[in-house]
Amino acid sequence: MAKQSFGFGLAVSWFRGKVVDPLIQILRRGTEPKQLAFSAALGFTFGVFPICGVPMFFCGMAIAVLKSLCHAPTVMLTNFVVTPIELSLVVPFLRFGELITGGPHFPLTSDALKKVFTGQASWEVLHSIGHALLGWLVAAPFMLGALYLLALPCFIILVRKFSSLPSSPKKPLINSPRAEVRLKVRDV
Fold it and tell me: Is residue 1 one of the residues assigned to a domain?
């Protein structure tokens, strides 16, 4: 029983350090709730792109293109948090893409997955990847809009709650122009 509680405590500690603490830091910096909601929705929408490794690239491109319209740490944090969801949505995007095109139902077998990983993918596998991409592409604007509408009230409440908390006092830097240095001089 001790091992289970240790593992759970370790997971909670990891989640707090990697997700909760960065989110609180973001909220304390006074960013607008609309910008945070848009950034979180953008990070989620790109984060569930059905090809592994690509979401981080898309998020980086969105940050570079949108500049001050989005909040980069929120986009990347949301992208990081939704990574496990990305894999679980590949099949729904695939089936949605098949529905849109009226294409054949691709059987998901271990043999098909093996062919993808070994580079021996047939045209059927490539078509199924295309269907998953099409499913995501059609669903993405709706996900972005719905997530923005859901996240906005949450961020309004969170910003109000956490921006009112005093942040920790910062130590002056020695090289800072406002830092004061006092030296004691002894008579010799």
Answer: no
- Spell out the residues 6+ positions from residue 178 whose beta carbon is closer than 8 angstroms to its own: 172
Domain span at 99:
11-163
Please report which residue ranges of 48-82 form alpha helices under DSSP H: 54-66, 72-81
**pLDDT surpassing 50 at residue 173:** no
Sign of the CA dihedral with 80 first, then 39, 152, and 155 last: positive
pTM of the model: 0.75
DSSP run (H or E) holding 179: none
- Split into its structural domains, the chain has a count of 1
Structure confidence by residue, pLDDT tens digits, 22-59: 888 888 887 899 999 999 999 999 999 999 889 999 99
Cβ-proximal residues to 154 (8 Å cutoff; 6+ apart), any chain: 37
Transcribe 98-109 into DSSP letters: HHHHTPPPPP--
| Alpha-carbon separation of residue 184 from 9, 49, 145, 180, 187 (angstroms) | 49, 62, 62, 13, 10
The conformational region for residue 30 under phi > 0 = left, psi -120 to 50 = alpha, else beta, is left
Residue 175 lies in a domain: no
